[in-house]
Amino acid sequence: xxxxxxxxxxxxxxxxxxxxxxxxxxxxxxxxxxxxxxxxxxxxxxxxxxxxxxxxxxxxxxxxxxxxxxxxxxxxxxxxxxxxxxxxxxxxxxxxxxxxxxxxxxxxxxxxxxxx
Length: 116
What we know:
The chain is an alpha/beta fold. It contains four helices and seven strands, in the order βββαββαβαβα.
């Protein structure tokens, strides 16, 4: 997994996460997000629209990251398709307001505090 970051507006950091998301690559995503959280960034969108494989073993790590971001007063949303929703649902973490079809929708939800 090779991550790239970009901004959606001035307040939401979008992390593009193409390739495989599994227990080996999960720390590659979570580590940088945690550093941004500790630096004061509060809005995040993980863009899984180009993910090739979302392994169930990595989903708990994503959920822990979401809880950590929320505990610091921030929001983390996911942009992805039906495959992403299905992978999250099978692990019991497809919350209403967590997964959005597009990055724009996810970023807007972060700004509005809609993400659960």
